[in-house]
Amino acid sequence: MAAETLLETHKLTKSFQGKTIIDNLNLNIKKGDVYGFLGRNGQGKTTTIRMLTGLIFPDSGEVVINGLNLRGDFKQAISQIGAIVENPVFYDYLSGYENLSLMVNLIPGIGKEKINEVLELVGLTRRAKDKVAAYSLGMKQRLGIANALLNDPQLIILDEPTNGLDPQGMIEIKEMILQLSSKKEITFFISSHLLHEVSQICNRVGILNDGKLLAEGDVSELINDSETHSLEEAFFNITSGGQH
Ligand SMILES: Nc1ncnc2c1ncn2[C@@H]1O[C@H](COP(=O)(O)OP(=O)(O)OP(=O)(O)O)[C@@H](O)[C@H]1O
C-alpha cells in the first residue's frame, strides 16, 4: 500500500519585489519519509520552509499538513509540526533543562516530565544541567530539536541542520534523525545543499532550482532515472538540464 501523504503543497508561489522566488511548487512528503529538500544556496529553500511553517504567506497556492489546510485550519495544521527554521536561540545563562522548562510553561497540556523525555531522545541527558553557553553548536541544534519534540509532532522541519557543524556534530545529528525516524516514526523534511549528507539519511528528495521543483522521488529512482551512480551526479544532471 502506498504511504499516506503527510505534507503537500499545491502550486505554491511567492514573489519578492516583482521577482518570482518560488514558482508553482508541488511537494509531496509521505508519512515516514526522511525527505531531503535539495538546492544550491539562494534557490528558495528557506522561503519555502517559511511558507510551510506559516512564517510568511504565499502569494498563491496551498500548504496542506495531514489533510489540514494551513490557510483554513492554521492552528490545527501547525500543531502537527515541530520546526527549526533559523538557528535555535536559547538563553545562554540557563541550562538546557531550564530553557526547555520555559518553553513548556508556554505550551498548554504539557508536563515537566516531557523535558527529560525529549532530552533523552536527543542525547542531552548528561548535559541537561549545564549552561547552554557551554554547549557546542551541535548540542544547541539538538536542544533545538528537543524543543521541537515537546508537542509530539508528526513532522519535523529542519533548515540546513548540519550547517556549520564539525564532522562529529554532523554524525550526531544524522544519527539522531535516523533514530527519531525509526523509533518515534517522525517524518522529517530537511533542507540542504550537502548532497552527500542527504544521501546518507534521506529516502526521498525534491530538487529545487530557481524556485522550481525539477524532480521529486526516491533517491535510488532519481539515480537510476538519470543514469548515474550517486545523488551528486543525479543532482548535477537534473539541475544542468540533463534530464529535463
Ligand atoms: N524577504 C525577502 N525580500 C526580498 N528577497 C528575498 C526575501 N527573502 C528571500 N529573498 C530572496 O529569495 C531568494 C531565495 O532565498 P532563500 O533564502 O529562500 O534561498 P535558499 O535556497 O534557502 O538559500 P540559502 O541556503 O542561501 O539560504 C534569494 O535570492 C533571496 O535574496
The general outline is globular
Radius of gyration: 18 Å
What's the domain count? 1
User: How many angstroms does the end-to-end distance come to?
Assistant: 29 Å
Strand order in the sheet with the most strands:
7-8-9-4-10-11
State the CATH class. Alpha Beta
Count helical runs.
9
CATH superfamily: P-loop containing nucleotide triphosphate hydrolases
Flag low-confidence runs.
none
Write the CATH fold name: Rossmann fold
Helix percentage range: 25-40%
Largest sheet: 6 strands, mixed
The hetero compounds bound to this protein are:
adenosine-5'-triphosphate
Strand content: 25-35%
Mean pLDDT: 91
Q: How do the helices and strands follow one another from N- to C-terminus?
A: EEEEHEEHEHHHEHEHEEHH
* Strand elements, count: 11
- CATH architecture call: 3-Layer(aba) Sandwich
From the helix content, strand content and strand pairing, which structural class follows? alpha/beta
Short description:
With 244 residues, the protein is an alpha/beta fold. The protein has helices at residues 45-52, 74-78, 96-106, 113-121, 137-149, 167-183, 195-201, 219-225, 231-239, and strands spanning 5-16, 19-25, 28-30, 34-38, 60-65, 68-69, 81-84, 155-159, 187-192, 204-209, 212-218. The longest helix is centred in the C-terminal third of the chain and has 17 residues, at 167-183.
Describe the structure.
This protein is of the alpha/beta class and 244 residues long. The protein has a single domain (5-90, 154-241), classed as P-loop containing nucleotide triphosphate hydrolases (Rossmann fold), CATH 3.40.50. Helices cover 35% and strands 26% of the residues. It is built from nine helices and eleven strands. It has helices at residues 45-52, 74-78, 96-106, 113-121, 137-149, 167-183, 195-201, 219-225, 231-239; strands spanning 5-16, 19-25, 28-30, 34-38, 60-65, 68-69, 81-84, 155-159, 187-192, 204-209, 212-218. The strands form two sheets. The chain has a six-stranded mixed β-sheet with strand order 7-8-9-4-10-11, with helices on both faces. Strands 1, 2, 3, 5 and 6 form a five-stranded antiparallel β-sheet that branches. Helix 4 (113-121) crosses helix 5. The chain is globular, with a radius of gyration of 18 Å. It starts with a strand and ends in a 5-residue tail after the last helix. Adenosine-5'-triphosphate binds next to helix 1.
